[in-house]
Amino acid sequence: MKRFNIIVITALAILTASCSKTLNTDPQTSISDEEAIIDGKSAQAALIGVYDGLQGYASSQIIALDLAGDNVVNYNNQNIVVATKTAAGTGGGFTSIYTAINRANFVITKVPTLADALFSAGQKNLILGQAYFLRALAYFDLVKTYGGVQIVLDPLKYTGIKRSTKEQTYAQVLADLEQAETLLPETVNRNIANRFSVYALKARYYLYRDQWDKAAEYASKLLSNNNFALVKPFSSFFTGKNTTESIFELAFSTADKNTFYTNWLSAAEGGRRDYVPARDFTALLLDPDKGGSRSSLIKQLPDGSWEVVEYGKQDGTSSIFILRIAEQYLIRAEARVKQTTPDLNGAVADLNAIRSRAGVPLFELTPATSANEILLAIENERRFELAFEGHRFVDVVRTGRAAAVFGPYNKQLTDQRYWIFPIPASAVLNDPDNLGGENQNPGY
Amino acid sequence: MNRKSAAAWTGRLIIFLSFILPVYNASAQHQNISISGTVVDATTREPLVSATVRLKNTTHQVLTDEKGGFKFLTGQVFPVTAIISYVGYNAREVTIPGEAPVTVLLEAANSKLSELTVVGYTRTRTNARNGAITSIKAEEFSKAPVTSVVEKIQGEVPGLMISANSGVPGTSVLVRLRGATSITAGNNPLYVVDGIFMNTGDMQNLGRGLGGQQPNPLAEINPEDIASITVLKDANATAIYGARGANGVILITTKRGNKNSRTRVNVSAQQGWATTPKVWDLVTGPEHAALVNVASANDGIPADKLPFRPKSQEVAGFPAYGTPEEQQTYDRLSPIFRTAQNQKYSVAVTGGDSKTNFYLGGDYEKAQSTLRLQDFTRYSFRVNLDHGISDRIKVGTSNSVSYVPRTVVRVGDGPAGLFQAALHTPVFYPLYNTDGSYYKVGVFDNVYAILNNSDNHAYALRSLNSVFASVNLLPGLTFKSTFSSDYSNYHEKAYYNTNLVYGQPAGEANDVTTTRETILAEQLFNYNKTFGKDHDLSVVLGNTLQLDWQESVSLTGTGFPSNQFKRITSAAVQTGSSSGTTSRLVSFFTGANYLFKDKYSLDVNIRADASSRFGRDHRWGYFPAVGAGWNISRESFYPSNALVSDLKLKASVGLTGNQYIGDFASRGLWNGGRNYLDQPGTGPNQPANPDLKWETTRQFNIGVGGSLLDGRITLEADYYDKYTSDLLLPAAIPVISGYSSITSNVGAMSNRGVELLVNSLNIANDHFTWKTIFTVSRNKNRVEKLVAPITDGSYGMYRIEQGHSLYSLYLWNELGVDKETGNVKIEDISGPKGVPDGKITQDDKKIVGDIWPKAEGSLRNAFSYKGFSLDVNIFYKYGNKLYNYTRYFLESGGTRGVTRSIQKSSLNYWKKPGDEGVLPRPTSLPNPDGSNNYNSATSRYMEDASYIRLKDVTLGYTLPSRLLSRWRISQANVYVTASNLFLITGYTGPDPEANSAGDTNGIVQGLDFNTTPQPRTITAGIRLTL
């Protein structure tokens, strides 16, 4: 029996001794944050992660903006054309945009510090330039939706950050775009950021900032490049892939699916059909003199209702069109009307490039045509041409016409405070730098 | 086994036994006398089986048979003195004057309190225990044909809330012991089966999901194998389970053979039928159309664009569905229900000789759900064996393997769910297109498409195994070493062909296998010693080492050549993924219990746990507890003729923990899979929190136990107060960080409650007995500390807020309908400036109620008359709320147009000024004050879900033994059980015992969204003992 006792005690002692080792387990599906970006390969993987972040917010941003406008309604509430926005409601991609920014911040702060001989300066610039571009796009998406926001540039610091003004936020967008422009080359790759995507985003930026000459200048850089051209028929840019229409096309694959189709397609096609085109807008799209071939964006179902098919590839490979050449035509058209020395002929030519591709009657410029008439025509053209890509609400707000256009549908929009979205309630509540709710937009 | 061979087999057994008996005879004297008699319980007069009858001053003893009878020959002379003893009873000496058979009455009262009993790790005298512990024996289990043992003890343990989430057999059951102590770290009790720590986490991983429905892992254990369930409730009893004890511990003990007992074969068979008592009531097609037109007109849609107008008036963008009168009504709801059948067959063989005892069990159970496409089947096998190598060394093993195939279907949530197709699809739409294909509406699948094509299965394989060796090192000191394993494998397989929504465009198949393994090594010393007459001491010391692994492999195939091909190997696109995780737990524990003069007891125990899940600086947690008891009735001053004859007071306080968080929650992590252009990408996943530690629950308990009227009525009452601090929560951090949360220890929660158990033997005479068991309990949960309220992401009507209960409903408080305008009236609580502003906004939501019952329990009556027995079991719940989310969707006043069906109750709406007691005016537009008449989370859909259910009634008849003896059957019992015969409730849904939320959801519970109601069943069965 004594021998037995000794065995027991020894066994217990061994168990105890191995304790500390036993308790050190390592995860199998993750790595520690210190080992995340250490060389060229891991930096490239982290950059890919930023694109993944953009995939993560692009569709929620589009749908939030389109529901706020008059193009799209909720399937379950089709009589409500322009929804009332509340802080507790779906607030767009706010949170997931910051997720993408956080990933970009990791790349932007870590990559310059890496001392890896195999990681050349050229490679570093390529990675950094893309990260700057993606961060610019993210802050641009934030500022156009929510107004000025808190600017986070250090991935590990997120407290003590006061909200910036709209001007300051736009300044950050421009600063990142300038960085990206110097770091990135002029190569044609429609799925990743390069200098052409910077040009296109800059054109949009200057349009939003009322810097008409620059808007026209940057749009022209693309419009004069024969790598980018309108495709015909209209539908081919979204039924195909990486057509010349695209400047920056966010791609998906069967292994990396875009589930946006489930929000639009009917159950019989594997979707949930959460969103449908507003009935009045459907009628306009179907009008051969207005929508023209853009009626191919929607499709009629057996019960007589309509669904959007722009993101309708049921295998999840539909792209999201971040920047395409049609927008550049319309940017330049608008800029040409508004620039210090208006070029109405040029503007109408750009507008008619779009109309002609859509197969609708061309805009006729007569000596009696006013600038406002052209601007209204451009606004309407943007509504059809960029229908389900998240432009409509921002366009109408940008030109100060939201009260006139959306007001009849929803009185809330007659008040300018509601021309930007509320910051999601959760984002305001959980921020210690927001004591007193100062980060919330007025009115919400 | 047919009757003939059974008889032959029994005959052989008897020959075998009679071979043993002469051994005793051989040792007897020549001048033999014969002694015989019966041993029965003094109170119930029930025979005591396997009681020991020993002749004084000899070693000669026999055991009583199954009728309590004994008989033996001895060389002694009359009168002889026999000592009769039986576990749990006072031993008695009786003088037997002659050969006439004697009846010996053994007293059960009190005596069982002084024997040593083992509960979990501890071995001590029952009357020295100071914890709140309730035991339920197999005889007290409900006879209702439910698949898991927890459903069989619903209401029987005060403080243990048990609620089936749906009426589908084998699906999850919500179990909460003394409230809920945690938000994120889990609230399920710890289940220990014969010392094996059972994993009860959800293993369902199927990508498409089942719409909130989860399997119940406890259904993988055959309830027939279970001998008793012991529920450890307070800190004194659970602290020795340390970091896993906070939610209570449920010890499940399976049956084992008795030493020196005849081999018995128990065979049982039952067959049952189940129906659904009540479902939802929907409008007809014309009613639907008329109501939608009313709502659309109120929304300002002109008459020429109303949805239900002649089909000839087609306008682009505004489809015409025909006039209301033209609409047909199609029934989609009744096809999904059926009269379900259930069968159960089980066999158990037990027995033992002087060294070895065994239990062999097996069962086959098949339970269909009343909801089509859902079946539960269980095959289970068990071997329990104990063997004494010598007087001092014992070895044993407990093993069970079960295989549980299930047929499943996505039920409630999600557009492709069966209920969405059957219940939510507007009734006026046809079932088929003119070409015969399935007609699908909006987001929903077609009900017949699902019924005819669903191919969704889950296969659970579970193996619970342990071996132990114990040795008596010194008198009173034993060492036991146990090695155990819990292995489960959950394999899910789904195929969606092109007739189904999920099968678009060319079929989809999913195949997921999840395996989990827990290995536990346990070393345990128990010491018991009585010093002098008055001092009893018991000590426990132990150590465990636990290793856990989980692995998951999932495969998806899309793009099948045709609907004949169903396996992923035929798919055009095949994707796969695998993942795994692991955790470790090292523990030491010790405890001592001291009992003085059978009157005063004191115990202390402590456990130290170290888990790999926590931050390096907070690995170790210490969980001490102390308890004291005082048996007042043993004091000399206690009047011997007091009404309460046996009275004990006890109190305890201690700490327990909860460690159920992610295995690597304390680390800063980056994940892969953040891909783009099919290139691998990475991204940060969670920020580090090296300070992460246990949730700690401090629990205080006082209890009183007593018996009245010579032990015919026993009472147990407890009051407890639990306070949980360092709640593990995904604490919100600013979203601008890029993370939504960081797991940290913030917040506190309390639970206070009372429990009462009354056990009464109302009548007991030779022919008739009537027993009553009544339980009632109440728990008050309160979130004591929470920095900011947490509103659920998917179901915004649920919120956790400081000062309120967990599972609270956060809603606009509806005050009725304005009889002049027909608009809803919502309580205006606040505005942007913190004062009522005449506008109904988010600021006006408040916590209106919670799902906790004010009281719940059961009333159980058992009658027996001669061979007949009648068991009537009533379960009740009072003051609890449910959020009737189905009604939220279906009582829509036509505002959901042609997208969703409408519940009949919706027709009672405001039509003209002066209307009262009606639903608001149908419109989807907001009212001037910003409120919405429909589709808004108001208190209208929060309903009182109090109920009384006749849970089960069983009428049984035990056949007289004289009829059976010629078949060599020692006992035969036939019975009929009816369950859910009546339900009294004011709840408007089909069943108030409903819950669509997963049992681990920390915010949402008590959500009724398309829940399959509890079935009404009739079951008939027979049990034979050979």
TrEMBL record, chain A:
Subcellular location, record wording: Cell outer membrane
Primary location group: membrane
Know the name of this protein? RagB/SusD domain-containing protein
Q: Give the matching Pfam families.
A: SusD-like_3, SusD_RagB
Q: Where is the RagB/SusD domain?
A: 312-419
UniProt similarity note? Belongs to the SusD family.
Is Signal found in the keyword set?
A: yes
Q: Which residues does the UniProt record annotate as the domain SusD-like N-terminal?
A: 60-207
What is the native source organism of this protein?
Answer: Chitinophaga terrae
TrEMBL record, chain B:
**Which InterPro entries does this UniProt record tie to the protein?**
Beta-barrel_TonB, Beta-barrel_TonB_sf, CarboxyPept-like_regulatory, Plug_dom, Plug_dom_sf, TonB-dep_OMP_SusC/RagA, TonB-dep_OMP_SusC/RagA_CS, TonB-dep_rcpt-like
* PROSITE patterns registered for this protein in UniProt: TONB_DEPENDENT_REC_3 (PS52016)
List residues of the TonB-dependent receptor plug domain. Answer: 131-249
Which segments show compositional bias classed as Polar residues?
924-933
**Signal peptide interval:** none
Show the GO cellular component annotation of the record: cell outer membrane
Q: Output this protein's name.
A: TonB-linked outer membrane protein, SusC/RagA family
| Alphabetized UniProt keyword annotations | Cell outer membrane, Membrane, TonB box, Transmembrane, Transmembrane beta strand, Transport
